[in-house]
């Protein structure tokens, strides 16, 4: 009882129920948070809402905060075993906002009492309605109750997408209350499940300094770099000066300009003077320019007049130009008249022209007549013409009659004619009937004819079925082909059967371009709702398999159909006539199938394309991303038809893919598999990947593996890369390892100099051709790699 009361108070404070009382429930949007914004889909088949008497009374007798209080009272007297029935009623509640609120309260109450029972119900609801909405409602409460248990439950979710989502949601909530334990839990997860960037971002919201200090706990350098930038960007909103200080202490290569920009944009909103002083302390260059640009963007968003005045005080140059542009842009949005006064006093030049374009485009949103009047007095040439057309376009969209009246006051001539046509085209996009009536009453001659032709095309697009009757009455020829081209996209979108009839009725003399475009429009429309039908249509056209349009459409069908029904798409591709289109379609559909069904894709490629090395390699690559063990086993027992070379490009590519993906998930198991491979280039391709992944964290193991490579040049290059990297962090250990390696005396001496240079920070030259070849390694592979 007490837990529910505390929860309801916190919940009400965060959701502002007082505001809900003033909201029209039928029009309210779905609740914020991880609950899906459009939770209407949770209502499944649209079943009518039939609440029991208790729930019906709450909605009929109460509103706003009183309704929430009444629902909480109902929850308090509902036994745990009755919460499922209550939730099942709420799913069909027709008021989106309160449906979301009450579901959250109900699942929270259930989770507090019986988290496993609440999760079981949420999973059943997900399967029943096809939505993931209930799962966050359980885990958001469970993590506050027992984070380790919530994480364990999230790891046991069968659906991988659900599993990853809820694991990271639990960790992100956990890190804000107990970062040390949460970090330990994150590090214990299997590869591929943890989102380090989001985890550290949430940590930085409560303790950015600690989050930054713990970045060394991330082993992968790329992930560590991305996470470091995310932490600094988050910290910028809390302590921009502190974030700037940390950023400046990093090596120059790690000081990302976009992070610097985030820091100064946030800093400008807090203390623009201090931010400006800090930006000007940076050395002249791109980083400083980025800081100035972002600083003034942030400053001008709050105080555009003050920012513009400060920008004018800067020394002429790129920094001043950036500052002026950002400040002026913000001023035009807030006070275009003041921006116009400022701009009128500026000297002529390219900078002033850019400002004119920015000003008039913004001004046209609120007062296009004033913007046009100012433009006529203050601009000429291309700057005037371009801005004039943009203002008229916006004016036509909001008040076409006023726009046409303004144009009518212009002197007669080509300029007025062109402006009238552009405005009519823009008007016709919104209301072609009204635009056509205006043209008939006000224009004459060629301008009237051109305008009416364009508007007729617009009207045909709005009602293509009606326009089709007129097209069918036209004689064959260029006019009919032109009419078909203007109609085919909207017709195929609105009535694909009518479009197919039109296609089938095209005369033999029809323009081939028109025929191909109509066929493409039909296929594109059918693929959205019926990819199998699109596939049948393409085959029914009787097109030549060597025709480029046929090949393109086959590939288009293969790509889109395989995204939703890969098995069916593979079988369809196999039925195509022999030729490039069939081969490409089979490859495409098999690749798509391999992303979620490796064994099925492997069966397809070995059945339909037993001699296709490219398709087989692609399947192995995709399959090994989710199941490297299965991919490795299938590959080991497979012999590509027509490929008896154990060191072929196909085998090297496949082995490299398995090694790369397996090492990222389970380095020990992958290493054991690599150790079973026969000596040669294929094994070397896997060893090189292993060496690269281990060189930073375990250089001794990486070196042992590099020594086993069969290629002398590749072996020496990897030995070099490992030792040089090692020397930068631990010179004595690197030298000791080098001296024990199977190298010649000359190579030992050459390496000693290279390692000393690396440790001192000096540039290290690449391997020279005469550096030498290491002595063959006599030790067995089984002793290598740890």
Question: Any overview of this molecule?
Answer:
- With 786 residues, the protein is mostly helical.
- Helices cover 73% and strands 0% of the residues.
- It contains 46 helices and no strands.
- Helix 9 (147-155) runs antiparallel to helix 10 (160-175), helix 32 packs parallel to helix 34 and helix 36 packs antiparallel against helix 37 (598-608).
- It is globular and about 95 Å long.
- The protein starts with a helix and ends in a 26-residue tail after the last helix.
- The model is unreliable at 1-46 and 774-786 (pLDDT under 50).
- Fraction in helix: over 70%
Q: Show unreliable segments.
A: 1-46, 774-786
- Regarding quaternary structure, what we see is single chain
Look at the structure and give the mean pLDDT: 82
Please state the CA-atom Rg, rounded to the nearest Å: 34 Å
Proportion of residues in extended strands: under 5%
Estimated structural class: mainly alpha
The best one-word shape is globular
Distance N to C terminus? 57 Å
- Counting DSSP E segments of at least 2 residues, the number of strands comes to 0
Main β sheet profile:
none
